[in-house]
Amino acid sequence: MNVEEEVERLKQEIKRLGKPQPDGSYKVTFGVLFNDDQCANIFEALVGTLRAAKKRKVVAYDGELLLQGVHDNVEITLKALPLATSNWQEN
């Protein structure tokens, strides 16, 4: 799996494990993601995938490096997708 595919899978897992927010985003704690068996089977390096997603502005969380135990309660936010804008105009 390349980085883009891993980020897409991460988005799916955050939606599965997280709680939807009124603004369309999803929130989950690092501990929930890290300790989930399915995530453990998908991601060889969850922290690296999270950093890649943060760099791409797909997710947001405090800090740079998340560590099991110490950062289990850090909230990870999957940002809401912007509404698609159409170039179609009515004549």
From TrEMBL:
One Pfam family it belongs to: Costars
GO biological process, one term: regulation of actin filament-based process
Domain of life the protein comes from: Eukaryota
Residue ranges annotated for the Costars domain, each copy included: 1-79
PANTHER family to which the protein is assigned, alphabetical: COSTARS FAMILY PROTEIN ABRACL
Family indicated by similarity: Belongs to the costars family.
Name listed for the protein in its UniProt record: Costars domain
Organism: Dillenia turbinata
